[in-house]
């Protein structure tokens, strides 16, 4: 039901089938550009779809309709016949009539067709609820975990930034203190060397005086 999906999508999105310079397309490939339209009384939020999105959801709804298909001809077969006739019957009203006529011989009635269409609406609504539930669960598990991790990392960055500032100040203060202490050490070493030299001179002078006094005592007394 590929074309059925794209026809349904066409109500809400503008599809540009003109290939761009940087895009290589097959004969049946469509390039989707632009944003969702916002029809009157529509609650669908504005969004955008690319070709990958189109292919993904097309396969999803094809599978959903096939799995939910009821026995005998119904709305699903009616849509498929319409798709087949589209290349031959351009007028939609005539195509509807032709599709219905071809299936009515198999027992399809107008009431059956309407009821089947309503059934597939319920199928889609149930699938929508299931999809939204899965999205909510994904949001409250993976996304919340990741958001929490982001918060923790942001806090760690702030804490580490403050720690870096503190350590940088401590390093700066230590460098200043080291420079001052090195100056004090150099001055103290000079002072001690001066005192040592002065003491040695004074000590030698005192020793010489005493030695001379001993000689004088021995010779004069």
Secondary structure tally: strands: 2
The side-by-side strand order for the widest beta sheet comes to 1-2
- The gross shape turns out to be rod-shaped
Order of helix and strand elements from N to C terminus: HEEHHHH
Radius of gyration: 47 Å
Provide the residue-averaged pLDDT: 82
Query: Strand count, sense and closure of the main sheet?
Result: 2 strands, antiparallel
Please give the alpha-carbon distance between the first and last residues.
143 Å
Strand content: under 5%
DSSP helix fraction: over 70%
Q: How large is the count of helical segments? A: 5
Question: Which structural class fits the helix and strand makeup?
Answer: mainly alpha
Uncertain residue segments: 15-41
Structure description:
The chain is mostly helical. It has a domain at 2-148. The chain contains five helices and two strands, in the order αββαααα. It has a two-stranded antiparallel ribbon. Helix 2 packs across helix 5 (110-220) and helix 3 packs across helix 4. The radius of gyration is 47 Å and the shape is rod-shaped. Residues 15-41 have low confidence and may be disordered.
């Amino acid at each position: 039901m590929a074309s059925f999906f794209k026809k349904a999508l066409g109500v809400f999105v503008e599809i540009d089938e003109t290939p761009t310079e940087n895009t290589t397309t097959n004969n049946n490939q469509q390039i989707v550009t632009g944003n969702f339209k916002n029809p009157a009384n529509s609650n669908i939020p504005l969004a955008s779809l690319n070709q990958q999105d189109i292919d993904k959801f097309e396969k999803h709804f094809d599978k959903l309709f096939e799995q939910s298909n009821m026995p005998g001809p119904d709305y699903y077969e009616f849509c498929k016949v319409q798709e087949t006739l589209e290349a031959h019957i351009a007028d939609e009203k005539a195509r509807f009539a032709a599709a219905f006529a071809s299936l009515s011989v198999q027992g399809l009635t107008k009431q059956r067709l309407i009821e089947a269409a309503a059934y597939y609406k319920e199928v889609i609504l149930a699938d929508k609820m299931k999809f939204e539930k899965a999205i909510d669960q994904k949001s409250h598990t993976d996304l919340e975990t990741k958001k929490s991790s982001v918060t923790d990392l942001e806090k760690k960055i702030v804490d580490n930034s403050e720690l870096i500032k503190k350590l940088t100040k401590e390093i700066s203060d230590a460098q200043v203190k080291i420079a001052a202490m090195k100056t004090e050490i150099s001055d103290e070493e000079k002072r001690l060397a001066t005192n040592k030299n002065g003491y040695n001179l004074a000590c030698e002078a005192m020793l010489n005086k005493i030695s001379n006094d001993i000689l004088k005592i021995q010779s004069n007394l």
